[in-house]
């Protein structure tokens, strides 16, 4: 009903984006910064930008996300925001006492041409950064890239600023988690612990955006990767970078700056991507794969076998971030499902190439698009041409789900109308069981709701 004006006919668009399948760079920069202990994100732009970034994260994580802003006025919008940022740095360290301030730029400050590096250097020269405190900065103009790009840029900035090679190798592995939920970060640490691989996870938003209710407000919760840990990443044996779009830049920076080699792997969603992650962990940590992990995999395969009949041949539409969509598509194909429509607002030529490698033999008719015109409008048009059995993506798909009467599994960012994503992981074998459970629940609810009375089954 809400999208009843969506037309079936797809027309080539060059400039217009309708309902984008992405959000803005600073949102990602802010999320990455929250995964560092004692860090206060700072948005160098107007209050409106900062309010939007904070509310996007607050609505998704259901936690009060703190961040400061340079509070641009008309004057700073014309003449530049240096004075505002210098004052803000002074205020933040005086009033809120963070260990680190992570400054990201916005469309406005980038358009003016503010040089964050120069302003932060001046703040240091002027004595506005107290001894032992830090200001990290990343350029995040939102008229290019997406929230994923902003995340990657901020992660790279942390590594560039802190990681340091003292030529004393430490028997530990760096894990760059990619943009996943705090529940997923917990799961990655749990798997590494079972495998007895000493590691440093960056960023780590568990115990930051999923904190328990204690009745006491903590501006800097106990979670997050510490400065000491990020510094020591420069002495690690190797890095496993999960998700090319989110983590590759930081992995390359660690390699270039500290000579820490890296293995690139997908975010561990589904069977094959989890296998690759576990194998990478085993190789990097020089450990064998314990029985407990094999058993988790076995339970997943058992569930797949039991429920295959309900999943076989189901047509699925997906949208979201490349690092999630790639392993998810692979997982759906492993289940004999048909991921027929896939869009991501995040640009990058490698996406379609990677997708065609995954899909070519199994589902060559699948439609895949990314970049600015790969939006929810296009997705709806494709669905109107030929419908699907299941939608998987962020909350913005609920309009299509309602209009077309298609079961909908919420996955990705943002999810602002349901809970659970912060608490139940979707990575690893356990996470794959969670995805399966959600897909089966949605599909079976539809069967129950639409099956004629004479065929209605109690046992499925
Ligand atoms: S103006 Fe740019 S940085 Fe600010 S909220 Fe909009 S897209 Fe994001």
Count of DSSP helices? 17
Largest sheet: 5 strands, parallel
| CATH architecture classification name of the largest domain | 3-Layer(aba) Sandwich
Task: Indicate the radius of gyration in whole angstroms.
Answer: 23 Å
Shape: globular
Strand content: 5-15%
Oligomerization: single chain
Q: Any low-confidence stretches, pLDDT <50, length ≥5?
A: none
Alpha carbon gap, first and last residue = 32 Å
Q: Which ligands occur here?
A: iron/sulfur cluster
Could you give the order of strands across the largest sheet?
Answer: 11-10-9-12-13
SSE order, one letter for each helix or strand: HEHEHHEHHEHEHEHEHEHHEHEHEHEHEH
- Helical content, roughly? 40-55%
Q: How many separate structural domains?
A: 3
Q: CATH homologous superfamily of the largest domain?
A: Nitrogenase molybdenum iron protein domain
Strand tally: 13
Q: How much is the average pLDDT?
A: 96
CATH class of the largest domain: Alpha Beta
Secondary-structure map:
Layout: H1 25-34, E1 39-44, H2 47-61, E2 68-69, H3 74-79, H4 82-96, E3 100-105, H5 107-112, H6 116-125, E4 134-138, H7 147-162, E5 170-176, H8 182-194, E6 199-202, H9 227-232, E7 236-242, H10 244-258, E8 262-265, H11 270-285, H12 291-311, E9 315-319, H13 322-334, E10 338-344, H14 350-359, E11 367-370, H15 376-385, E12 390-393, H16 398-404, E13 408-410, H17 428-450
The structure holds iron/sulfur cluster (SF4).
């Amino acid at each position: 009903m809400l999208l009843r004006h969506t037309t079936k006919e797809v027309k080539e668009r060059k400039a217009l984006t309708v309902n984008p399948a992405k959000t803005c760079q600073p949102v990602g920069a802010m999320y990455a910064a929250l995964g560092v202990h004692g860090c206060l994100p700072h948005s160098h732009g107007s209050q409106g930008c900062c309010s939007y970034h904070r509310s996007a994260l607050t609505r998704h994580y259901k936690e009060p996300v703190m961040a400061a802003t340079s509070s641009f006025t008309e004057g700073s919008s014309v003449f530049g925001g240096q004075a505002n940022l210098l004052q803000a740095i002074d205020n933040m360290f005086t009033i809120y006492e963070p260990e680190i301030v992570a400054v990201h730029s916005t469309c406005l400050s980038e358009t003016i041409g503010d040089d964050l590096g120069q302003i932060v250097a001046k703040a240091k020269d002027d004595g506005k950064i107290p001894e032992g405190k830090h200001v990290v900065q990343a350029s995040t103009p939102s008229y290019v890239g997406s929230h994923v790009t902003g995340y990657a840029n901020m992660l790279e900035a942390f590594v560039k600023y802190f990681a340091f090679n003292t030529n004393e190798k430490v028997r530990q592995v760096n894990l760059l988690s990619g943009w996943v939920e705090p529940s997923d970060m917990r799961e990655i640490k749990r798997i590494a612990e079972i495998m007895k691989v000493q590691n440093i996870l960056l960023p780590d938003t568990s115990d930051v955006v999923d904190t328990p209710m204690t009745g006491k407000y903590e501006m800097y919760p106990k979670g997050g990767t510490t400065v000491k840990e990020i510094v020591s990443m420069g002495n690690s044996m190797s890095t496993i970078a999960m998700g090319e779009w989110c983590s590759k830049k930081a992995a390359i920076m660690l390699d270039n700056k500290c000579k820490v080699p890296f293995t690139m792997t997908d975010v561990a969603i589904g069977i094959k991507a989890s296998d690759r992650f576990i194998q990478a962990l085993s190789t990097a940590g020089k450990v064998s794969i314990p029985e407990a992990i094999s058993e988790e995999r076995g339970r997943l395969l058992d569930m797949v076998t039991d429920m295959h009949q309900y999943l076989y041949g189901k047509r699925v539409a997906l949208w979201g971030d490349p690092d999630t969509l790639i392993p998810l598509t692979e997982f759906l194909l492993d289940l004999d499902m048909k991921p027929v429509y896939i869009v991501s607002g995040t640009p990058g030529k490698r996406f379609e190439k990677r997708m065609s490698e995954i899909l070519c033999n199994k589902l060559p008719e699948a439609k895949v698009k990314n970049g600015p015109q790969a939006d929810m409008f296009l997705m709806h048009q494709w669905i109107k041409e030929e419908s699907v059995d299941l939608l998987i993506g962020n909350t913005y798909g609920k309009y299509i789900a309602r209009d077309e009467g298609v079961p909908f599994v919420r996955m990705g960012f943002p999810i602002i109308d349901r809970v659970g994503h912060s608490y139940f992981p979707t990575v690893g074998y356990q996470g794959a069981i969670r995805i399966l459970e959600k897909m089966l629940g949605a599909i079976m609810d539809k069967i129950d709701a639409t099956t004629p009375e004479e065929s209605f089954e109690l046992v499925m």
